[in-house]
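Deliverable D2.4 — example input (structure tokens):
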């Protein structure tokens, strides 16, 4: 399994209404990160604070160009992102479905080992699936 190359596929796919935040996360943002809380409405995240309409893309997803002239993505609230983002990916099947660029042919040939590797990589980001 390769390191994340910041292709942004996961963020782009799930930021269009596919993410949620817990009430604890929302409460924390309201106290400590009101700039994030501005984009929450009635428990839904990534809502335009002006229009009240759901955004088509996460407002915290930033794109830039690297030295190879490839677009890469980063999260402006990475350390305060919702658990939905923090815990992704949780399973190799998700990565396959989402065309994750971290996967290598050997991961597809041995998905159980790939899952073990993923669990190790994600140990600090999400609870273990065991």
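Example output (designed residues):
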């Amino acid at each position: 399994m390769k390191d994340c190359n910041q292709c942004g596929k996961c963020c782009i796919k799930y930021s269009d209404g596919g993410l949620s935040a817990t009430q604890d996360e929302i409460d924390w943002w309201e106290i400590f990160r009101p700039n994030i809380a501005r984009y929450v409405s009635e428990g839904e995240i990534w809502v335009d604070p002006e229009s009240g309409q759901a955004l088509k893309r996460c407002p915290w997803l930033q794109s830039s160009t690297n030295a190879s002239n490839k677009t890469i993505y980063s999260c402006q609230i990475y350390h305060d992102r919702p658990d939905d983002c923090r815990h992704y990916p949780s399973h190799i099947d998700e990565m396959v479905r989402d065309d994750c660029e971290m996967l290598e042919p050997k991961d597809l040939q041995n998905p159980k080992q790939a899952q073990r590797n993923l669990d190790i990589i994600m140990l600090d980001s999400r609870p273990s699936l065991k």
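The first strand starts at residue 40 and ends at 41.
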